[in-house]
Amino acid sequence: MKKHNFYAGPSRLSDYALQATSEAINDFAGTGISLLSISHRTPEFQDVMDSSAELVKELLNVPEGYSVLFLQGGASLQFAMVPLNLLDKSATYINTGVWATGAIAEAKCYGEVVELATSKDKNFSYIPKGWESKVDPATSYVHITTNNTIYGTQYKSDPNVPALLVADMSSDIFSRPIDISKYALIYAGAQKNVGAAGVTLVIVRDDVLGKVDRVIPKILKYQTHIDKGSMYNTPPTMAVYTCLKTMERYKQLGGVEVMHQRANAKAQLLYDEIDRNPMFKGTAAVEDRSNMNICFVMNDEYKDKEALFNDFVKARNILGVKGHRLVGGFRASIYNAQREESVQALITAMQDFEKRHI
Ligand SMILES: *Cc1c(COP(=O)(O)O)cnc(C)c1O
Q: Which site among 73, 150, 230, 241 is 20 to 30 Å from 326 CA-CA?
């Protein structure tokens, strides 16, 4: 039976990527053995790693002077690796939610953190504005979280700052064109918009490394992984393969520009229904609404029907729309692999629920 998968991460993967991965689990690249049992040192797997990095560069127009890495430990390890490798005395963070808060906590282990702007006053329902001009050019870097998975807010453009810019793009990379040259480092856990859980994409400008004076364990140095082509130790081979196939699909469909148009269109459909339907309301500031995580709650007079709506959609094979406990209500995650058909199924459920209760 067809399920409509709205989970926030791990989340829906394209049929193309799933099919290719399951075939490779049976027989990888004509080797006659499984992707899960072949050495990462074989030419066949080396080709997967090389092609994956190349495809990231192609899809995102990565300029010369940057390295593309596939690491482990999730975006959460990057919260610590970024300050370990880049924080000299102090770094600047923009706090837009739980993930940014987690990144700040790790940075504080290695130096001073200037929390230049935050939207904590309104439960992170908006993106703070006007802080760029207040950045101290002497700061080691400025860290932002481009899409706030839990609250459904998203930066709509790349900020201009007079310092190195670092971004957690775990939940919106590949969903809009980005000017990579504005960033010193970008990281993204794969399980939302890159591929399978277990691997983290990092894009780093080579010349920003090696500047801090601290002992860094070898495995936590970006330079180690650059020097070893993301194979300093055994990589999560299957997860990297699924990323390659996910990105191949993006390319087949027309690349990041097309992903952006599709994301805009899918999100608009859902936001239009949230704004029209008297039972629901959005939780994020309209101008900062995310194209990836659509957060909404029941209007006050229908608050007692939230559990009922959850059961109602489940009965229609719509899964994963329960909101994060910190926001409540509902969250529909509609990353690149989400089908418009599933978005329509959710909209129809909202309309039918309205007919039944109003
Ligand atoms: C999911 C998520 C994380 C955490 O990723 P892990 O890979 O579980 O460590 C961090 N930041 C953002 C923006 C996320 O969406």
A: 73
pLDDT tens readout for residues 145-190 = 999 999 999 999 999 999 999 999 999 999 999 999 999 999 999 9
Q: Give the angle 162-163-167 at the CA atoms, nearest 5°.
A: 120
Domain end residue (candidates: 253, 282, 308): 253
Query: Is 118 found in the same domain as 46?
Result: yes
100: CA distance to ligand 1 center in Å? 10
CATH number at 183 reads: 3.40.640.10
Residues 173 and 322 in one domain: no
Atom 2 in ligand 1: residue holding the nearest Cα: 170
- Contact (Cβ atoms closer than 8 angstroms) between residue 71 and residue 204: no
CA separation for the pair 120, 127 (Å, rounded)? 10
Residue 144: strand, helix, or coil: strand
Protein residue with least CA distance to atom 13, ligand 1: 170
- Rounded to two decimals, what is the model's pTM? 0.98
Give me the pLDDT at residue 2, please. Answer: 86
CA of 173 to the centre of ligand 1 (A): 12
Q: Which domain holds residue 139?
A: 15-253
Residue 316 inside a domain? The answer is: yes
In tens, the pLDDT along 115-152 reads 999 999 999 999 999 999 999 999 999 999 999 999 99
Contact status, residue 313 vs residue 279, Cβ threshold 8 Å? no
Closest ligand 1 atom to residue 190 Cα is 7
Residue to mutate, 70, 72, 76, ligand 1, most ligand atoms under 8 Å from C-beta: 76
